Amino acid sequence: MIPAIRCIPHETTAEAHGPCKVNKIQNEDFLAFLFRHRTVCWRAMQILADLNRELLLNARRVALSGSVAGNVAKLLLDWEATVSDNNGKKHFNMLLTHREIAEIVGATRETVTRALASFRQKGWISVHGASVEILQREKLKHISI
To answer: Which of 58, 85, 95, 119 can bridge 125 by disulfide, Cβ–Cβ 3.0-4.6 Å?
Structure first.
Protein backbone atom coordinates (compact mmCIF):
# COMPACT_ATOMS: atom_id res chain seq x y z
CA MET A 1 0.00 0.00 0.00
CA ILE A 2 2.73 2.49 0.93
CA PRO A 3 4.74 2.02 -2.29
CA ALA A 4 1.57 2.52 -4.35
CA ILE A 5 0.63 5.71 -2.51
CA ARG A 6 4.18 7.08 -2.61
CA CYS A 7 4.63 5.91 -6.24
CA ILE A 8 7.85 4.03 -5.46
CA PRO A 9 8.97 0.42 -6.02
CA HIS A 10 8.12 -2.07 -3.29
CA GLU A 11 10.39 -2.03 -0.23
CA THR A 12 9.54 -5.37 1.37
CA THR A 13 8.63 -8.93 0.49
CA ALA A 14 6.13 -11.37 1.94
CA GLU A 15 6.33 -15.11 2.44
CA ALA A 16 3.29 -17.38 2.56
CA HIS A 17 3.19 -20.11 5.18
CA GLY A 18 0.65 -22.11 3.23
CA PRO A 19 -1.17 -22.24 -0.06
CA CYS A 20 -2.48 -18.88 -1.22
CA LYS A 21 -3.67 -17.06 -4.30
CA VAL A 22 -2.15 -13.67 -5.12
CA ASN A 23 -3.37 -11.11 -7.61
CA LYS A 24 -1.24 -8.21 -8.68
CA ILE A 25 -2.91 -4.80 -8.74
CA GLN A 26 -1.39 -1.95 -10.70
CA ASN A 27 -0.63 1.20 -8.68
CA GLU A 28 -2.95 3.33 -10.82
CA ASP A 29 -5.83 0.89 -10.32
CA PHE A 30 -5.28 0.80 -6.56
CA LEU A 31 -5.18 4.59 -6.28
CA ALA A 32 -8.31 4.92 -8.43
CA PHE A 33 -10.03 2.39 -6.14
CA LEU A 34 -9.09 4.48 -3.09
CA PHE A 35 -10.46 7.63 -4.76
CA ARG A 36 -13.78 5.91 -5.53
CA HIS A 37 -14.28 4.28 -2.10
CA ARG A 38 -14.01 6.72 0.81
CA THR A 39 -14.36 4.12 3.57
CA VAL A 40 -11.53 2.05 2.13
CA CYS A 41 -9.41 5.17 1.73
CA TRP A 42 -10.13 6.14 5.34
CA ARG A 43 -9.11 2.65 6.55
CA ALA A 44 -5.92 2.82 4.50
CA MET A 45 -5.09 6.15 6.16
CA GLN A 46 -5.70 4.61 9.60
CA ILE A 47 -3.36 1.72 8.78
CA LEU A 48 -0.67 4.13 7.60
CA ALA A 49 -1.12 6.23 10.76
CA ASP A 50 -0.78 3.09 12.91
CA LEU A 51 2.40 2.11 11.06
CA ASN A 52 3.79 5.61 11.50
CA ARG A 53 2.96 5.55 15.23
CA GLU A 54 4.68 2.18 15.65
CA LEU A 55 7.81 3.46 13.88
CA LEU A 56 7.82 6.55 16.07
CA LEU A 57 7.43 4.46 19.24
CA ASN A 58 10.32 2.22 18.18
CA ALA A 59 12.55 5.21 17.40
CA ARG A 60 11.64 6.85 20.72
CA ARG A 61 12.22 3.60 22.59
CA VAL A 62 15.76 3.30 21.24
CA ALA A 63 16.65 6.99 21.42
CA LEU A 64 15.20 8.12 24.75
CA SER A 65 15.66 5.33 27.26
CA GLY A 66 18.91 5.17 29.16
CA SER A 67 19.09 1.39 29.42
CA VAL A 68 18.25 -1.81 27.59
CA ALA A 69 16.12 -2.90 30.56
CA GLY A 70 14.19 0.36 30.24
CA ASN A 71 13.65 -0.23 26.53
CA VAL A 72 12.45 -3.80 27.13
CA ALA A 73 10.17 -2.61 29.94
CA LYS A 74 8.66 0.05 27.65
CA LEU A 75 8.10 -2.53 24.91
CA LEU A 76 6.29 -4.86 27.33
CA LEU A 77 4.12 -2.00 28.58
CA ASP A 78 3.28 -1.01 25.00
CA TRP A 79 2.27 -4.59 24.17
CA GLU A 80 0.18 -4.87 27.33
CA ALA A 81 -1.67 -1.68 26.40
CA THR A 82 -2.98 -3.40 23.25
CA VAL A 83 -4.85 -6.22 25.06
CA SER A 84 -8.15 -6.13 26.89
CA ASP A 85 -8.58 -6.83 30.59
CA ASN A 86 -9.60 -10.42 31.42
CA ASN A 87 -10.88 -10.75 35.01
CA GLY A 88 -8.46 -8.12 36.28
CA LYS A 89 -5.50 -9.64 34.42
CA LYS A 90 -3.91 -8.64 31.13
CA HIS A 91 -2.06 -11.44 29.39
CA PHE A 92 -0.43 -11.00 26.00
CA ASN A 93 1.57 -13.31 23.82
CA MET A 94 5.15 -12.34 23.18
CA LEU A 95 5.29 -13.31 19.51
CA LEU A 96 8.84 -12.11 18.91
CA THR A 97 12.03 -13.96 19.74
CA HIS A 98 14.57 -12.43 22.11
CA ARG A 99 16.72 -11.71 19.04
CA GLU A 100 13.86 -9.81 17.36
CA ILE A 101 13.20 -7.86 20.55
CA ALA A 102 16.91 -7.05 20.70
CA GLU A 103 16.73 -5.59 17.19
CA ILE A 104 13.82 -3.38 18.24
CA VAL A 105 15.47 -2.06 21.40
CA GLY A 106 18.98 -1.80 19.98
CA ALA A 107 20.67 -4.49 22.08
CA THR A 108 21.97 -8.04 21.90
CA ARG A 109 19.81 -11.11 22.38
CA GLU A 110 21.74 -12.04 25.51
CA THR A 111 21.08 -8.63 27.09
CA VAL A 112 17.34 -8.90 26.37
CA THR A 113 17.28 -12.41 27.85
CA ARG A 114 19.00 -11.14 31.00
CA ALA A 115 16.57 -8.21 31.31
CA LEU A 116 13.52 -10.48 30.99
CA ALA A 117 15.02 -12.97 33.46
CA SER A 118 15.64 -10.13 35.90
CA PHE A 119 12.03 -8.94 35.56
CA ARG A 120 10.82 -12.48 36.29
CA GLN A 121 13.14 -12.93 39.29
CA LYS A 122 12.01 -9.63 40.78
CA GLY A 123 8.37 -10.66 40.34
CA TRP A 124 7.62 -7.85 37.90
CA ILE A 125 6.39 -10.18 35.15
CA SER A 126 5.10 -13.73 34.89
CA VAL A 127 5.92 -15.78 31.80
CA HIS A 128 4.25 -19.06 30.84
CA GLY A 129 5.38 -20.16 27.40
CA ALA A 130 4.70 -17.21 25.11
CA SER A 131 2.12 -15.70 27.50
CA VAL A 132 3.28 -12.72 29.56
CA GLU A 133 1.52 -10.99 32.43
CA ILE A 134 2.84 -7.78 33.96
CA LEU A 135 2.60 -8.07 37.74
CA GLN A 136 4.40 -4.85 38.78
CA ARG A 137 3.42 -2.26 36.19
CA GLU A 138 4.72 0.68 38.23
CA LYS A 139 8.18 -0.91 38.57
CA LEU A 140 8.40 -1.33 34.79
CA LYS A 141 7.10 2.21 34.20
CA HIS A 142 9.73 3.57 36.58
CA ILE A 143 12.68 2.04 34.71
CA SER A 144 11.21 2.77 31.28
CA ILE A 145 11.40 6.55 31.75
So the answer is: 119
